[in-house]
Amino acid sequence: MERALEGVSASPGVAIGPATILDRGGTAGAVVPPRRRREEISRARSALNAVAGELDAIASRLRREGRGGEADIVDTGVLMAGDPGFVERVEALVMSGLAAPDALRGAARETANALAALDDPTLALRADDVRSLGRRAAARAAGRNGTAREGILVADTLGPADVAELAGTATGIALAGGGVTSHAAIVARSLGLPMVIGLGGAVLDTQDGEEVVIDGDGGLFVRGPSVGRAASARDAVERTRAAREVAIAHRAEPAVTQDGRRIRVLANASTVAELEEALEQGAEGVGLMRTELLFLEARHWPAFELQVQVMRPVLARLAGQVATVRLFDFGADKTPPFLQGVKKRGIEILLDAPDVLQTHTRAVIEAGQGTQLRVLVPMVGTAAQMRAVRQFVDAGVQVGAMIETPEAAACAIEIARVSDFLSIGTNDLTQLVLGLDREQSRRAPVMDARVLRLIAQTMRAARQASIPVDVCGEAASDPAALPVMVGFGADELSVAAARVGQTRERVRSLNYTVCETEAARLLGEAGHASRERV
Ligand code: PEP
Ligand code: MG
């Protein structure tokens, strides 16, 4: 019998396979009798030792792969597993009657909450590592292997150590908790891993190894799938796999239209896992590194050293290649705890805090050493803002403006004259022009005449100023919008890592002259439509 749980889609696509349970609800209410508590303590201790060894192995692998920054993060778990204070707390919880798995999870939760409440941003960022340690150790103590295996990961939440493993092992992710903006959700989307969140505690009742279907488009998690559902899920998986193989096989072919217009295809990537997928699919560099996503849980502006430590592992892999690093775009749905209540967004927030902007630009330049670094300014509204930012960036480093508000598009020519390149953020632009709620809306109608007109106007401004123009919003890989972006004259398309290959293929299938004519026709209609509305 099928049992479907409804959640919220955090990453599209379909997967079918055995479930790997990383979290299990507590053994609520089961009190361990006093005579068995010593035995329970040694179970908890050996689980911690086993997990310390496991995390150590992950850290060593990351170091061998040149991912020292991530290895250091995973090492925090190793240290915590042996921390006398932590072990004492686990023992105290067992002595109070909790079973080893519950005591491990409980002690980890307490420690994570205490870390998250500290005034030290470095330690606050480690809270997820501790939760991850507790989860892994609890799984061990319950007799299961806590590491990710081939299959669909089922968990309450996911921490950085789990995310570091995701790329090679998981085929889908189902979470009881929320977090469309969680670290895991971002990586999942970019890697093309289907993910559904907000499924509630019932998803944790799934048995390890049980066959499940995850439908990241419909926000569904299905236990005991019917024969029909299983067959169509397998078909969907196979189609996606075949398309990726084709894209990788052709990755060396240039992204040139049939009539010879060269388009640079870059990736939107903020983590090593995303970047690796993007490069495998033939990305010619990074067109958008969303730095703010790496600090969403910060409790203070992150210090210079922490910023470099977090950004460097990604940028180190882009030696000699284009690395477009966007300055922190905090605000709205990307507001860390220390900016709660702030109404401004993007560059406005940074310009209000010149010391912060100074530290941030220095950290970006330091972390981007050896790359063709381009600094991208989010939510620009005026040319004056661009001039102000330039004072914080060394001469010789390119500075570009995101055009993602109607105000910016209206003065795109002034902004273009003081920028080295423009990048069109069609996600915010569409939402703002049409007055949609970006988080709630399931549609992003970038092809609306009012949006297209502003995009075309921005591309014209870039051409007049003789600077390149990039599209880094979802429109860059949207099958319907991509040819229009090319037709308007986009020089670069920056797309999610998982879509780099298919975007390159799509460019090769296009005829630029046809795209130009079609885009002009749409614009003519756009002009007509807007005149009618006046
Ligand atoms: C955009 O708005 O299109 C964009 C690329 O920026 P973000 O999605 O990060 O807001
Ligand atoms: Mg944006």
Quick overview of this protein structure:
With 534 residues, the protein is an alpha/beta fold. It is 48% helix and 15% strand.
What's the SSE blueprint?
Blueprint: E1 3-6, E2 8-11, E3 14-21, H1 37-64, H2 68-81, H3 84-95, H4 100-116, H5 121-124, H6 127-141, E4 151-155, H7 160-169, E5 170-175, H8 183-191, E6 195-197, E7 211-215, E8 220-223, H9 227-249, E9 264-268, H10 272-280, E10 285-290, H11 304-315, E11 322-326, H12 347-351, H13 354-367, E12 372-377, H14 383-390, E13 398-403, H15 406-410, H16 412-417, E14 421-424, H17 426-434, H18 449-464, E15 469-471, H19 481-488, E16 492-496, H20 500-509, H21 512-533
Parallel strand pairs: 3-4, 4-5, 5-6, 9-10, 9-16, 10-11, 11-12, 12-13, 13-14, 14-15, 15-16
Antiparallel strand pairs: 1-8, 2-6, 3-7, 7-8
Helix pairs in contact: 1-2, 1-3, 1-4, 1-6, 2-6, 3-4, 4-6, 7-8, 9-20, 11-13, 18-21, 19-21
Bound molecules: phosphoenolpyruvate and magnesium ion (MG).
Please provide a written account of the structure.
The protein is α/β, with parallel strands linked by helices and 534 residues long. The protein has 21 helices and 16 strands. The longest helix is centred in the N-terminal third of the chain and has 28 residues, at 37-64. The protein is globular and about 80 Å long. Strands 1-8-7-3-4-5-6-2 form an eight-stranded mixed beta sheet. Helix content is 48%, strand content 15%. The structure holds phosphoenolpyruvate (PEP) and magnesium ion. Magnesium ion (MG) binds next to helix 17.
